[in-house]
Amino acid sequence: MIAAIRGTHDILPGDVEKWQYVERVARESCERYGYVEIRTPIIEREELFAKGTGESTDIVQKEMYAFTDKGGERVTLRPEATPSMVRAYIAHNLEHAMPAAKLYAMGPMFRYERPQKGRYRQFHQLDVEVFGMENPAVDAEVIDLAWTLVTQLGIAQAELVINSVGCPACRPVFQAALLAALGDNLGRLCGDCQRRSATNPLRIYDCKVPADQPIIDGLPHSVDYLCEPCATHFVGVKTHLDAIGIAWRQSHRLVRGLDYYVRTTFEVLGQALGAQNALLGGGRYDGLVKQLGGGDRAGIGFAAGLERLVLALPESAPVAPPAPAFVVAIGDEGRAAAWLLVRELRQAGLAAQMELEAKGVRAQMKRADRLATRVTLIVGGDELARGEVTLRDMATGEQRAIARESVVTAVRDLL
RNA sequence: GUGGGUGUAGCUCAACGGCAGAGCACCGGCCUGUGGCGCCGGUGGUUGCGGGUUCGAUUCCCGUCAUCCACCCCA
After folding, report:
1. Is A362 within 7 A of strand B by CB distance?
2. Which of A104, A305, A334, A412 satisfies CB 3.0 to 4.6 Å to A35 for a cystine?
3. Is residue A181 one of the residues assigned to a domain?
């Protein structure tokens, strides 16, 4: 047997219904908020992510499925969607066609990581992006959509965490303050933190090493170093969230790992997901469009992990597809008539099934029961002679004869 | 990339050097034109894979692959 690639998974019947449900709710939520779908390739030039996601990120440094194709091009399976979205936005001049673009996408992403619960090498994201809008109300609307999606899915005990990491004007001041406060303690931090202090000092806040925590607790917070425009923006975001009654917790430790984030960052955390507890995460990335060769356009968005949403889905989620009608055939003539009846129901837009292998009535009834069907139609010699079909309500066990012509209407009423 | 746990029937798990089992699921019978409940029966396994130790390995050892947990990172 040839095994699947590590960290990839088949999604089988029984689970796939949960996926369809999550995807359906995601689509409906996005479209209610005025987002339109866009589909971009899952393979891109490597430099798109080097420039977009950021040279200093772990994603680019060690997690990309990158290779040289037969034409000598350096390409990679996308590790995230945002740079592709930005590329498409610029390439098709949507800056002019849709100056204020609200886009969403869904699909697989690839990162070469060690798999664990909620973390896979091929995983799937819902990606939501807004281009060209800077108002803090936009941040709040994006967060609103993210939060609404989670609550619509019935995921309980989720928590919204927000922060502001400043902008190119004020972040250097904060980083300098951070390093100054660290001072001699730098040498006492773990190796990872010492590395972070050189590449991306904010990431020190991601550290979970117990010994480091007393030192980290004493460090300054980014929100205390925001420039006036960033501070005003952040207050605006929180005011808008309060106005629509979405509860948030501010955390100075929410710094996020991608290079392009400015100002607002946010995550929704879930329970029972193990260490990978972020259901979704995102933030503002105002400089990214320009950096990738477009105009000076604002940007904000988030990505939600579909695997994680599926994992967090409550038992009660209405994921099951509607049960079909089932036609039970008796004898050869019954089978011929049932064959036509099933097709007629299907043509009328109703889900209908029958047992195509010749089997006894009991076995057919059992099959109908296993399908959880609400209504069974029985066609045998008796019925055929009278031009009727026997209709059985599977919940009550009641049966009645109905005219052959009115079957579609009768079934529609019961389903 | 690092450390640890676990791989036995479709699923959940027993057996832990001596004939590979149970429950659930699936198929059939009791009931030859009627599902669920019950009773009876049946199908289903190179014990993840490869090597080693042993008269004999599902069991002990090594390797490998997968998975889970944590680190790391993030969705």
Report:
1. yes
2. A104
3. no
Measure, in angstroms, how far nucleotide B67 C1' is from residue A257 CA: 27
pLDDT category, A92, cuts 50, 70, 90? Answer: very high
Same domain, A279 and A388: no
A12 CB-to-strand B distance under 7 Å: no
Tell me the residue range of the domain where A264 lies. 16-170+226-312
Alpha-carbon span A232 to A302, nearest angstrom = 22
The reply to whether A156 and A297 lie within a common domain is: yes
Task: Name the strand (E) or helix (H) holding A353.
Answer: strand A352-354
Domain count, chain A: 2
Q: In terms of domains, do A150 and A296 share one?
A: yes
Strand B interface, A 310-329, C-beta < 7 A? none
Residue A330 CB lies within 7 Å of the nucleic strand B:
yes
pLDDT per residue as tens digits for the range A229-274 = 999 999 999 999 999 999 999 998 898 778 789 999 999 998 867 7
Do A303 and A333 have their domain in common?
no
The reply to whether the CB atom of residue A397 sits less than 7 A from any atom in nucleic acid chain B is yes
How many Å from the CA of A56 to C1' of B32?
76
Q: Is residue A199 part of a domain?
A: no
Query: By C-alpha distance, which of A25, A28, A76 is closest to A53?
Result: A76
Domain end (from A278, A312, A346): A312
**Do A372 and A235 belong to one domain?**
no
Which residues are CB-neighbours of A33 under 8 A, at least 6 positions away?
A102, A141, A144, A145, A148
> If we measure between CA atoms, which residue out of A87, A108, A134 comes closest to residue A299?
A134
Answer yes or no: do A230 and A301 share one domain: yes
- List the CATH number of the domain containing A338: 3.40.50.800
Query: What's the CATH number where A254 sits?
Result: 3.30.930.10
Task: Give the number of residues written for chain A.
Answer: 415
Residues 56-85 of A with CB under 7 A from strand B: 57-59, 63, 80
**Within this chain, do residues A144 and A246 fall inside the same structural domain, yes or no?**
yes
Mean pLDDT for all residues in chain A: 91
> Alpha helix (H) ranges present in A102-170?
136-152
pLDDT tens track for A107-128:
999 999 988 888 999 999 999 9
Q: How far is CA A35 from CA A27, A126, A127, A149, in A?
A: 9, 12, 11, 13
Q: 3-state SS of A180-202?
A: HHHHHHHHHCCHHHHHHHHHCHH
